[in-house]
Amino acid sequence: MNKAIRMFLNYLWQSILFWTFAMLLWAMFRFYGIESEEGITISADFRQGMQMKNILPLFALAGFLMGIFYATVEFAFERYNSKRRSIGLTIVIKTLIYLFFIILIATSMIELGTNLFGLQKNNDPGWWRHDKGFWITTLYILFTSLIFSFIRIANEKFGKGVFLKMLLGRYKKPQEEKRIFMFLDLKSSTAIAEALGHFKYSQLIQDCFYDLNDIVPKYAAEIYQYVGDEAVLSWPYHRGLANTNCVALFFAFQNVLKSRNSYYLDKYGLVPEFKAGLHGGKLMVAEVGVVKKELAFHGDVINTSARIQAECNKHNVTVLISEELKENLPVDSKYSTKSIGNLLLKGKKKELNVFTILQG
Predict the structure, then answer these.
(1) Which residues pair with 338 in a beta bridge?
(2) Domains in the chain, start-ordered, CATH in brackets?
(3) The model's pTM
(4) How far is the C-alpha of 145 from the C-alpha of 63, rounded, in Å?
């Protein structure tokens, strides 16, 4: 199945589950026990239509539809919205789209409730403009969407499933994990920075990482950190090996940069090239900091990955991988490997057998 379709379906079920629960919760807040409140008079028709056995299915359906719509909008923006567009403008566009669909869904639910349960509620064109119940519900939906977006952003920042583990305090004590790391660095960065100047150079790095971010989700990667003109990417070990994700991402990034060569040549007078070093194994992960809390990885795997990447220029290759990681990669006819030999990496006492990877 296409990776984009898998990503959408994964996001879809999460969105449907979240919004169905959120709308059921709102139905409970709004209507449960309302007829028992002192000082509130409920008409017989309203009481009949607003029984929880009638209300809950309606709101569950509304949540289901919200989940489909929300997932579709977010996926479309993720795939097709320019990452270079300001966050503020993106929020305004999304809010207008949400408002339109909320009106559409609310109107449909009123019509359905009227036909099935005899709800007597005005749904003439423009009904929503002066309906206080609609606007308080809309405010709840917009606030809830912020919570959903926050959870999604936090999940993306820390990696799939990691945010929940942090909430539960799993990483308060260091935990051992097996991961793959890639250190991705701009080639000839010093010369490029001198030629372009710091402002243009900063724009170049920004453009390169925008292009990198476009493909990161397709290969199940997590961006651990950016350090100047270097990006550090990570995978849980099994996920990095699956479909040779850890290798495929590098060549996909190369292809993206080549496909945009006219853009880079026109703007910067060059096409950026990157080099990468890959290694995997066990290391420790722990929650660090208070003011700027984050997950930190500690262990030889990170140091070795960085040292492997540093050997790329010396051997005039763009990507190097440790023998240990290469042996665990599934056989893929799209790639071939060539031994560089046993290298004594900086700071190491033992030599490490390193390979370069070729496409085709």
Answers:
(1) 356
(2) 3-158 (no CATH), 162-359 (3.30.70.1230)
(3) 0.70
(4) 12
What is the residue type of 101? Answer: F
Give the SS3 label for residue 213: helix
Between the alpha carbon of residue 12 and those of residues 6, 65, 96, the distances in Å are 10, 11, 21
Q: Is the dihedral of CA 182, 183, 188, 192 positive or negative?
A: positive
CB 60 within 8 A of CB 25: no
Q: Which residues touch 76 (CB under 8 Å, ≥6 apart)?
A: none
Partners of 295 in beta bridges: 287
Q: How many other C-beta atoms can be found within 10 angstroms of the C-beta atom of residue 256? A: 14
- 58 close to 111: Cβ distance less than 8 angstroms: no
Cβ pair 184, 230 in contact under 8 A: yes
Asked if residue 276 has pLDDT above 70, the reply is yes
Residues 285-323: tens digit of each pLDDT: 988 877 767 788 899 999 999 999 999 999 999 999 999
Residue found under tokens 């722990």: 286
Give the integer Cα–Cα distance in Å for 357 and 360.
10
Axis crossing angle, helix 132-158 with helix 52-80, rounded to the nearest 10 = 50
- Long-range CB contact pairs, 53-61, < 8 A, 24+: 54/113, 54/116, 54/117, 55/27, 55/31, 56/24, 56/27, 58/27, 58/109, 58/112, 58/113, 59/23, 59/24, 59/26, 59/27, 59/109, 60/20, 60/23, 60/24, 61/109, 61/112
